[in-house]
Specification:
By secondary structure, the protein is an alpha/beta fold. It has a single domain, classed as TIM Barrel (Alpha-Beta Barrel). Helix content is 45%, strand content 13%. The strands form three sheets. A four-stranded mixed β-sheet has the order 8-1-9-10, covered by helices on one side. A three-stranded parallel β-sheet has the order 2-3-4, covered by helices on one side. A three-stranded parallel β-sheet has the order 5-6-7. Helix 11 links the parallel strand 5 and strand 6. Helix 1 runs antiparallel to helix 2, helix 5 runs parallel beside helix 6 and helix 7 crosses helix 10.
Length: 372
């Protein structure tokens, strides 16, 4: 770091970066200053150093599929190009046999270690549908982890069942659910949610359901979808709501910032968002995520899905330590036409090796399976 010491001392965010190198995370005011600074490269040098200090020159990934079990949804989020209303001609819900066939094919062909299960808010599906699917996957494919259901999907199941979200989480865990993805957070500020997803659960409900999951021994990811109608203060608020919950529960394994892709969405049609935020902002968000969560949430994911493999390689040098997952069969982002969303383990492994890093294939819980 010696070559960057002078740069840090001259920078308007130098005090924050020096504190970070000494193990002191930025407070909300410091986070705002980072967001307002254009010194993205310097942030990246420091956050990359913190990451290598913790993990070495190594990046992990999980060999997985996304299983979009239904596209039927009654929540009508303006940022989504995937959902269909009940009864639409191209709406679908997979049967248990179809789910088994997809998992079996992926296990046989790709030796997957995780199924990420997400769909719409389908009012026709009872909790038994999910229990049967999770139980089947865990019994027939014991090496495949079940990482599934956003907080808002769990809320939907609870409403269908006239039950509590905690009871639903308990039942799903008993059936085989092992960890919970962070989807549904978007920006944890209700004035933002009122614009982009007014029918979805509130920020406090997202926090509450995650707290319940953690209390039941279900670890989770946390996410942030930025680059739409939020402002910098909203981003700061989002970060520190997650900090507060993590300080209480230590239940988040990873944080994943990803940029909104506006193509084919209502937000694009209505003129709310004309274009995505681009690569520089991604690197800035990755670096700030590492600085804010260093020593608190261990893993920062590179967010290749909306930005591509080349940007993910850079993200691994700006504070990310996890590439994310292989994706075979993903349908949500691909509906925006953003880019091809098929990615095999060989492409990820090659991309990580290209930047001189070791590759660690991991499981659901970030435990190493294979290092190359």
């Amino acid at each position: 770091m010696s070559q960057t010491t002078e740069q840090i001392q001259k920078s308007d965010i130098g005090d924050i970066l020096e504190n970070s190198l000494n193990g002191q995370r930025p407070d909300p005011e410091g986070c705002m200053r980072l967001l307002e600074s254009d010194d993205v490269h310097l942030m990246g040098l420091v956050s990359g150093h913190l990451t290598r200090r913790r993990f070495g020159k190594k990046a992990s990934f999980v060999n997985n599929i996304i299983l979009n079990y239904t596209n039927v949804c009654i929540t009508d989020c303006k940022f989504c190009a995937f959902y269909r209303s009940p009864g639409d001609d191209d709406s679908y819900t997979l049967t248990l046999d179809q789910i088994e066939a997809r998992v079996k094919t992926s296990w046989d062909m790709f030796n997957i270690r995780q199924v990420l299960i997400q769909g719409g808010h389908n009012p026709n599906l009872k909790v038994e549908y999910y229990e049967d699917a999770f139980r089947m996957i865990r019994e027939k494919f014991p090496k495949v982890g079940v990482h599934g259901l956003s907080t808002s999907e769990i809320d939907m199941i609870a409403r269908v069942e006239k039950s509590s979200t905690k009871e639903i989480l308990f039942r799903l865990k008993e059936a085989g659910l092992q960890s919970v993805p962070g989807a549904g957070a978007e920006i944890l500020v209700d004035s933002v949610k009122d614009v982009i997803s007014p029918k979805k659960i509130s920020s406090s409900d997202w926090i509450r359901i995650m707290d319940e999951a953690h209390s039941l021994g279900l670890p989770a990811s946390a996410t942030m979808m930025y680059g739409h109608v939020e402002n910098k203060q909203d981003i700061v608020d989002h970060f520190f709501k997650i900090v507060k919950l993590q300080e209480k529960t230590r239940g988040f394994m990873a944080f994943i910032p990803w940029n909104f892709e506006p193509n084919n969405t209502l937000m694009n049609e209505e003129g709310l968002v004309g274009y995505g935020t681009g690569g520089t902002q991604l690197l800035k968000m990755i670096a700030i995520s590492r600085l804010v969560f260093d020593g608190l949430i261990p893993h920062i994911q590179s967010s290749w899905l909306t930005n591509g493999v080349g940007m993910a390689q850079l993200a691994l040098q700006y504070g990310a330590d996890d590439f994310g997952g292989t994706l075979i069969g993903e349908e949500v982002v691909s509906c925006t036409g953003a880019r091809s969303t098929e990615l095999t383990d060989k492409i990820i492994t090659d991309a990580i090796h290209q930047i001189g890093y070791q590759v660690e294939e991991r499981d659901n819980f970030y435990n190493p399976i294979l290092v190359s």
